[in-house]
Amino acid sequence: PERCVVAVDGPSGSGKSTVSRRLATAIDGIYLDTGAMYRAITWAVLQSGADLSDVDTVVKIAMETDLSIGTDPQAPHFEANGVDVDAAIRGPEVTGAVSAVAAIPQVRAMLVQFQQDIISGAPRIVVEGRDIASVVAPNADLKVYLTASAAARAQRRSAEDATDVVATEADLARRDQLDSSRAADPLRQASDATTLDTTGMGIDEVVTQLLSMLNSKV
Ligand code: C5P
Fold this sequence. Notes:
Bound molecules: cytidine-5'-monophosphate
Largest sheet: 5 strands, parallel
Strand content: 15-25%
Order of helices and strands: EHEHHEEEHHEHEHHEH
Number of helices: 9
Helix content: 40-55%
Oligomer: single chain
Radius of gyration: 16 Å
Distance between the termini: 6 Å
Number of strands: 8
């Protein structure tokens, strides 16, 4: 397709990132990891030493953070205030704090605007997150909601990070709970999204299925 926007939402560990990057490459498009944007802002907040419960200060730091967002699906690279944060945003401190920062409406409003600007400037783009089909790109050409069993999600995540599978499952459950219960743009399935349960499916199989869905729409 000459132009297309694909929205990929779902809980942590559903395979969104791997699948979205592969799909973006397949359509010769760019890739937007909105979770990494929330993570980079959270990194800057933690770096400042601000108290996470002090919402006004967190918002102020978020507004002042200079984000550089990589959109190359082969190697998305992120900087916050000129610092390479690719490794730090995946660490336990950021992972532990990101859902609290992402629950703040002003932080979301700022990042959603930023995301929409990137989307409108791109001919073909795959955007992954929690609220893409419902809030960020309601007019997306294809909306997919990826799920997998809690055990499968924990297994994939702990294989990626070499962490303990039981602790990982508990952390995923904790973030899913926070992300689905917050008042501002919670994780939920858009009514017009297609759900794909990837438990037991390989990446190639998922990507092939999404490509054929996209081809039937655009
Ligand atoms: O996808 P990832 O696990 O990197 O996202 C990290 C966190 O960022 C999520 O747990 C969620 O709190 C937040 N997030 C969000 N909205 C998005 C993407 C991520 O609230 N569109």
